Amino acid sequence: MSLEVLKVYLEEEVYEMLNWGFSIVVGIEFIFIFYLWLKFKYLKGAFIWLFAHIAFFTFAGYKLLVAINSFEHQNPMASEDASFSMGISGTLWILSVACLLIALGKLVQVKSQTKI
After folding, report:
1. How far apart are the C-alpha atoms of 55 and 62, rounded to whole Å?
2. Do 93 and 60 contact (CB within 8 A), yes or no?
3. Is the pTM of this model over 0.85?
4. pLDDT tens by residue, the chain, 116 residues
5. What is the largest CA-CA distance in the chain?
6. Residue 29's closest CA among 19, 39, 21, 41?
7. Distance set, CA 43 to CA 36, 50, 59, 105 (Å)
């Protein structure tokens, strides 16, 4: 595939809006979890998993944004690069969800122990 045939599927401004939108959401999530961590420091194990969730989710979002940004792939293997980035993004997203579920499990476990 030559560079002249490479098509842009989204308008140019959409990439910047996606970058800002994703950054704002992750920033709000981080600030909220950090606030909760300061308030409930005794739940250290759960918050470590929540921060791991944010880290994996951030890298997953970055790789996804790289994959859909056709301007980043200005080479003959652009399609393969985008597919690889999407695969990495999916794997990181799965790890992110696993960390979130482990954190929720730890929070429920602590809540059920305090009820007894």
Report:
1. 11
2. yes
3. no
4. 444 444 446 677 788 888 899 999 999 999 999 898 888 877 888 899 999 999 999 999 998 888 887 665 567 777 788 888 889 999 999 999 999 999 999 888 866 666 65
5. 68
6. 21
7. 10, 11, 25, 12
Long-range contacts, stretch 46-49, CB < 8 angstroms, 24+ apart: 46/103, 46/104, 46/106, 46/107, 46/110, 47/103, 49/99, 49/100, 49/102, 49/103, 49/106
HSE of 48, CA atoms in CB hemisphere, 13 A: 5
Owner of token pair 């690889």: 84
Q: What percent of the chain has pLDDT over 70?
A: 81
Cα distances (angstroms) measured from residue 66 to each of 17, 72, 76, 81, 84: 14, 7, 16, 9, 10
